Amino acid sequence: MSIRTITEQELKQQTQYSQWILKMNQERAQFLNRSLGYHIITFGCQQNENDSERMAGLLDEMGYQAVATPREADLILLNTCSVRENADDRFFGHLGIVKNIRRDRPDLIIGLAGCLMTQGEAVAKIRQSYPFVDLVFGPQDIYRLPELLYHRLTDTRRVYEVGEDDTLVEGLPIHRARKHRALVTIMHGCNNFCTYCIVPYTRGRERSRLMPDVLAEVQDLVANGYKEIMLLGQNVNSYGNDLQKDDPTQPDFSDLLAKAAQIPGIYRIRFMTSHPKDLSPKLLDTIALYPAIEPHIHLPLQSGSDRILRAMNRHYTQAEFVAIAKKARALRPGLTISTDLIVGFPGETEEDFVETLATMEQVRFDAAFTFQYSRRTGTPAATYPDQIDDKTVRDRFSRLTALQNEHSLASNQALEGQLQEVLIEGRSENDPFVLSGRTAHNRLVNFRLPDDYPFPAEYRHTDGTIDTARLEGQIGQVRITRAKTFSLEGQWEQLLPWA
Ligand code: SF4
User: For an engineered disulfide with 146, which of 18, 95, 296, 367 has Cβ 3.0 to 4.6 Å away?
Assistant: First the structure.
């Protein structure tokens, strides 16, 4: 299927639906003497989070207001994920909670979006067992939310829509969830067909946004005070490949990253996820060249066995991976590398698993997301005969995490006593004077604010106490006092200015 860009005319139609709903909502709000609320529950990856931000932007335009809990909402959306079985399970658990809320509120609208909604089996289950669901739509249909919602609000029928796979849409409104980090999706879909992964079947083939559109979004974010930009794609390293088929002069990911890193006022730029097979020498040079690009790469190894990498359809060898990691660290001293690791892929022998442990020893990842293989219906690996028994998977998983925890702790311990710049992300729920932030190397630091630090008046309440919420998105200097496996503790030193 070829890539289709949603036309201006189609977007205008959606704006028309949005305005009709706005009018209906204004009348209803007047009648109820309160505004109408929406609540979105997001499962899965950051791309899903970014999709939820787009849905929130559309709902804002239709006159809904974000509310903190599902019980306060007139419309609840669950943005689902189908990558792992536990995300499925959590989603159905939440759906049960939403069902209870709906029991007391027959006028509550419930919508389901996201990858899982492109899976026929899941949709059939919802039709049969969850008849209270009003709307079902896939990631490709987000721009049609006004139209789908309008039909539901003006009709008693439920609306189920899963549209074309390979569409691209620009110009949707967005309601950003965070003040410090902005997510920018640069491409959709994936062409890689790793044999364990459902994404190419749920999100379609790779579609890259045009570079001017991405850069305009980044520029706008920087102008609006966002300090950290996160470029997102299932495989950012293949950004532009689809565009170059028609026009070889189109940029690749390295070109895009270099341009974004040079936008005046940008503080930090991150990207996720990099496929090792597509991490070009040019991209490594770019990462080494621009200080605004974070000194950190997330580079999924998955397995250290060439036999398993072949079975996973990963298109690199263990030796190639190790060479890339080595080169990256040599080009950008201090660069941290995090990874994804899967244990218990079908056919994985003890020898294969030991090769993964040996590769971890060789590379010494600074952090890792570790997974037990999750059998996803519709993927080739789900049909492989040599599935590994649960006990073996659990045993390997605990050996894998023990080793990684050792490496993560050692990597964090190297920072004890050092001064680090952190971008402040938020406050502890239990103590508003304990803040957290991330270093350029993507390490989480928790620290307490001293009462007597001379914060400028703009960071204080009228009674003189520190307004810690205002510090989100600011840059602080912190001395690392203690390393833990998954985070660091620090002592506040000073607030750093950023033009
Ligand atoms: S690169 Fe592989 S694991 Fe990643 S989204 Fe694509 S198919 Fe899935």
Answer: 18
Determine whether the shortest distance from the Cβ of 199 to ligand 1 is under 6 A.
yes
Does the Cβ of 303 fall within 6 Å of ligand 1?
no
- Ligand 1 center to 196 CA (angstroms): 8
Q: Are 297 and 335 in contact (CB under 8 A)?
A: yes
Cα distance between the two ends of the chain: 46
Note whether 4-167 and 419-496 share their fold: no
Could you report the per-residue pLDDT of 61-75, keeping only the tens digit for each?
999 999 999 999 999
Count H helices, E strands: the chain? 14, 21
> Element (H or E) spanning 355, and its range?
helix 350-363
User: Measured from the CA of 191, which atom of ligand 1 is nearest?
Assistant: 6
Evaluate: CB of 192 within 6 angstroms of ligand 1.
yes
Q: What HEC string does 221-240 produce?
A: HHHCCCCEEEEECCCHHHCC
- Check residue 6 and report its DSSP letter: P
Distance 400 CA to ligand 1 centre (A): 22
**Is ligand 1 within 6 A of the CB of residue 235?**
yes
Is 419-496 in CATH node 3.40.920.10? no
Q: Give the residue, out of 192, 203, 302, with the most ligand 1 atoms within 8 A of its beta carbon, to mutate for a pocket test.
A: 192
Residue ranges per domain, the chain? 4-167, 177-413, 419-496
- 172: its two tokens: 């949707």
Backbone angles phi, psi at 370, to 5 degrees: -110, 135
Whether 324 contacts 276, CB under 8 Å: yes
Cα–Cα dist 251/345, whole Å:
36
Q: 4-167, what's its fold?
A: Rossmann fold (3.40.50)
Protein residue with its CA nearest to atom 8 in ligand 1: 197
**CATH assignment, 177-413:** 3.80.30.20
Per-residue pLDDT tens over the stretch 418-465: 999 999 998 877 787 899 999 999 999 999 998 788 888 888 888 888
Model confidence at 362, in pLDDT bands (50, 70, 90)?
A: very high
